[in-house]
Amino acid sequence: MDIEVDQEVAEQVTRTPAELMAVVEALTFVADEPISTKVLAEVLGEDRESIQAAFEEIRNEYDERGSGLQLREIAGGWQIATRTELHEDVRKFLRTRPSAKLSLASLETLAVIAYKQPVTVPEILEIRGVQSASAIKTLLDKRLIVAKGRKEAVGRPMMYGTSKEFLVQFGLKDLSELPSIEDFEDLVS
Predict the structure, then answer these.
(1) What ranges do the domains of the chain cover?
(2) Spatial contact of 109 and 132, defined as CB atoms under 8 Å apart
(3) Do 121 and 132 meet the contact criterion of CB atoms below 8 Å apart?
(4) Partners of 145 in beta bridges
(5) 54-113 pLDDT, tens per residue?
């Protein structure tokens, strides 16, 4: 174990101030909560003063160019956020976007639709074993699925499939990037 740590230290590359700023900015952006200089110093193997200087320089760059983003020092750490004066515009935009949170029933229904599309509500019921009408409505409201026409069968039930928004939300180029059903089963078991 000690050998691996020594190899990591030996392989560490000295960063220029610009490189350090870039990595600090990237890690602050992906962090889901404010990130402290202490944590970044430990992760990056840099001294706290260099990390603090990088944060200050990033904040100055955002301010000087009038960026829509700001680097804020909050709750003992740093976070990238939208500028306060833009919050009303951001709120308006976010109200037009569907929420990404889904119930277990909606996720199960979405999985059935993704793998079996185009599929009807009775076919989903057959696979899941429970009614899916409210899950279908939720998925339609969130624009994760769309109607794909009617099935040539008694009653001509509506068929559903995934939407472009589904691909965007799940980071897929196309449906061929879905894991195989066997891989999916391995993930949930």
Answers:
(1) 2-93, 104-188
(2) yes
(3) yes
(4) 162
(5) 999 999 999 999 999 999 888 889 999 899 899 899 888 877 776 667 888 898 999 999
Mean pLDDT of the chain: 85
Q: Which run of H or E residues covers position 84?
A: none
Give this prediction's pTM: 0.52
- Residue 26 is encoded by which pair of tokens? 């990237």
Matching CATH number, 2-93, of 3.30.470.30, 3.40.50.150, 1.10.10.10, 3.50.30.30:
1.10.10.10
* Backbone dihedral angles phi then psi of residue 74, each to the nearest 5 degrees: -140, 150
CATH architecture entry for 104-188 = Orthogonal Bundle (1.10)
Tokens encoding 187: 């993930």
